[in-house]
Amino acid sequence: MRYFLFLVLLTQQAVAQVVSGVATYRLEMLYNPQSNQYGVSTYELRFNKNQSEFVMINNPSIDYEPYGIIKDFTRKRMIAPEPTFDKNYFVEDSLVAIPWEISNKERMIGKWKCNAAYATIRGREYEVWFAPDLALEDGPWKLYGLPGLILDAHSKDNKVKIVIDKLEFRDSSVVVRDIYNFGNPDNVSSKKFEKILEESIKRHMKIDNTTSTLGENISVTHKLSIPSIDIYPFQLENDKK
């Protein structure tokens, strides 16, 4: 009985300590379906008990630290950098609950026992694996809201794959960078940004406004010419091959 109680307390202590750290993910995106060519990048999820930031860390083409997707669980807000052909925007929205369907499927990822969950997010069907013993309701990109950190995620069309490479806990709280402000009047909502992006693509590609809308008659190659982790290819609502 004493040994059982010790294990319970040890597990509770391990779970409670997951309040600050850095999770490193390998992100693969299918750019060329004909040749099955994936683009590979490395991202970090830097988290504390109130906030997290998901940001690229290995892009040699830029000489500055890029902006990331920030989730603020205290404010219940999320903000992300979004480029168009014309300018960059900060897109701010509420943290809306993702309608996850948790299954009884289990697998080990490293030393962590994980459960599977499913949801359709921004027009794509995702399967993710989360670790209940890592009591952090977060994950890469805009994936969050499960009772444990998401360690593995992929879209069912295999265009997006995200797998954890490393997980480090910190004794002191990781500071999420104050790189842009929530509530800034210059921020736009995701719905407003969709319209801005559509008009930007039409202007750039010289597409007739009366015959095309975002996701229709615009090739995936053209869509991917804007290097954004947030719009391409994660969440195009009409890009369902």
Question: How does this structure look, described?
Answer:
The chain has 241 residues and is mostly beta strands. It has a single domain (19-223), classed as outer membrane lipoprotein receptor (LolB), chain A, CATH 2.50.20. It has helices spanning 2-16, 190-205, 220-223; strands spanning 21-32, 37-47, 51-56, 69-72, 77-83, 88-94, 101-109, 112-121, 124-131, 149-155, 160-169. An eleven-stranded antiparallel sheet has the order 6-5-4-3-2-1-11-10-9-8-7, with helices on one face. The longest helix has 16 residues, at 190-205. The termini are far apart. The model is unreliable at 1-16 and 208-241 (pLDDT under 50).
Concise account of the structure shown:
The protein is mainly beta.
The structural domain count equals 1
**Beta-strand content:** 35-45%
Q: How many helix segments?
A: 3
Taking all Cα atoms into account, the compactness measure Rg is: 19 Å
Task: State the assembly state of the protein chains.
Answer: single chain
User: Could you tell me how far the N terminus lies from the C terminus, measured between alpha carbons in angstroms?
Assistant: 55 Å
Read across the widest sheet, the strand sequence of neighbours is: 6-5-4-3-2-1-11-10-9-8-7
Mean of all residue-level pLDDT scores? 78
